[in-house]
Amino acid sequence: MAQIPKSQIDNQQIIQMRSVSKFFGTFQALNEVSIDVSLGERVVVCGPSGSGKSTLIRCINQLEVHNSGTITIDGHQLDGKKNSLQVIHDNVGMVFQQFNLFPHLTVLENLTLGPVRSRNLSKSQATELAMQYLERVRIPEQAEKYPTQLSGGQQQRVAIARSLCMEPKIMLFDEPTSALDPEMINEVLDVMVELAESGMTMICVTHEMGFARRVADTMVFMDHGEIVELSETKKFFEAPDSKRCQEFLQQILPH
Amino acid sequence: MTRILLICSAALLLTACSGDWGWYVVDPTNPKGLINLKFMISGLKYTVLLSVTAIVISIVIGLLVALPGLSTNKWLRGFNRVYVELVRAVPILVMILWVYYGLPQLLGITITVFWAGVIALALSDSAFEAEIFRAGIQSIDKGQYEASHTVALGYMDTMRFIILPQAIKRILPALGNQLVYMLKMSSLVSVIGMQELTRKANELVVTEYRPLEIYTVLLLEYLLLILVVSAGVRWLERRWETDSLNK
Ligand SMILES: Nc1ncnc2c1ncn2[C@@H]1O[C@H](COP(=O)(O)OP(=O)(O)O)[C@@H](O)[C@H]1O
Ligand SMILES: [Mg+2]
Predict the structure, then answer these.
(1) What residues of chain A lie within 8 A of the CB of B151, using their CB?
(2) B153–A117: do the CB atoms touch at under 8 Å?
(3) ipTM higher than 0.85?
(4) Number of separate domains in chain B
């Protein structure tokens, strides 16, 4: 992944969400959410539990199908049909809080299954690709192990590598370090920082504010299914417009 | 288990000396008894062949019925419910008679005793297999489907590479139970003339008039067969267990 020139970043919107709403039964989890993400942009999303952060990014890769509004990925509008799936599969990778590795497959098999089955790579091409990404997340020596034999931090790095093997343009992270023991958080964040620096378009739901300050171009604060604050990182931390966002930051930032 | 078996057979042998028993009909040390015994054991081949063929088919049908049951489409789920409820309500013996005498008339075909038995047993069991598969697949974490979606696998690939391998491992004990159940139920196919263990015993009883001894041997035949199969299933489970832990 080459560094993407800044000029290109500014004018190419890879994700456009316009007035997106999502209901679970009668409960509205997303309320008219709009956001644009440019190619190469790093967005960090925070907000209290239940505010709709997961729902937001799950709508982007259609794990949840939104009820109204439009989501456009790389110029293609998502409509819940087969073509949308293809657009998602070609563009969007995702890393979950609970890793969700395939426990019955080795690390290497976890990484090669997608490329072999859906990107039509040969076994040896896929293995080469997988080893390359395992190097990047710094665990090539674990290739033949099963997920349960790895630590949480290692498992999450495998999950990141598994997504990268699909060579997506956008990576979504849903609280990737929340399920980890404290001493393993940094090894995962380091990998994510490197990924951000390589120019990957990222949307991360996380409360790791040190990480956010370091890599985010844009910060988003959500509450009750709405985007309450959306601003450039420096402004977000120094002078957020909304009161709720200020209060939230006060709670989670060390004083 | 083997100890219990030994005690039982010892007890039987002891009572055998008390007069009412006529073990000679199946005594391998006398020529007539040996022939009878061989005759009885010759049914084993069909009992096993019948049960194994039927269980394989019922697993396939069970899976094909289970998958619609997990769909979000209510018609597909409805199909699953109706199939399971209907098939489960038919007694196996009735199913065997219906498939052997009824089905050929309905379809205008002839059907051998063996295949009638296989079809009847497989159909009967498929409802149970469907429920087992449904439960097994439902027990797999939703995150596995979501992860599968992120690596661009479609429904078929997700089932084949992600969900079923994990589900089958979990339901293996239940599938083992069904095989044991099938081995026992295959005895019912004797009514349409299938030359399996029970039929052989019945035929011998008619000529020898020693039901007590012959049916006792029959009972031991099933007992042994099922103990061996159960041990095999447990061995397989253990092997899979260690496979996934130690590789
Ligand atoms: N599948 C679902 N069914 C019903 N309610 C849901 C579902 N997923 C999320 N919700 C509800 O939607 C709200 C937002 O959830 P979520 O996006 O997971 O919040 P966050 O990730 O910010 O904690 C929560 O109140 C949650 O209970
Ligand atoms: Mg969440």
Answers:
(1) 113-114, 118, 162-163, 165-166
(2) yes
(3) yes
(4) 2
**pLDDT tens digits for range B63-96:** 999 999 999 999 999 999 999 999 999 999 999 9
Residues B95 and B170 in one domain: yes
Chain B residue at shortest CA distance from A94: B150
B57 domain-assigned? yes
- A110 → chain B, closest CA residue: B151
Q: Give the Cα separation of A59 and A201 in Å (integer).
A: 17
| Domain carrying residue B190 | 45-194
Counting residues of chain B whose pLDDT is more than 70, the rounded percentage is 91
Positive or negative: CA dihedral B214, B215, B221, B224: negative
Mean pLDDT of the region A189-211: 96
CA distance B76 to chain A (A): 20
CA of B7 to the centre of ligand 1 (A): 62
* B2 assigned to some structural domain: no
Coil, strand or helix at A67: coil
Residue B245 pLDDT level (bands cut at 50, 70, 90): low
Residues 6+ apart with CB under 8 A from A11: A38
Instruction: Give the separation between CA B226 and CA B214, rounded to whole angstroms.
Output: 18
Whether residue B189 lies inside any domain: the answer is yes
Pairing mode, strands A42-46 and A201-205: parallel
Helices (H), chain B: 2-16, 31-41, 44-69, 74-89, 92-97, 103-107, 113-138, 142-150, 155-157, 164-185, 197-208, 211-246
* pLDDT band for position A9 (cuts 50, 70, 90): very low
**A20, A21, A27: which to mutate for ligand 1, most atoms within 8 A of CB?**
A27
B233/B164 same-domain check: no
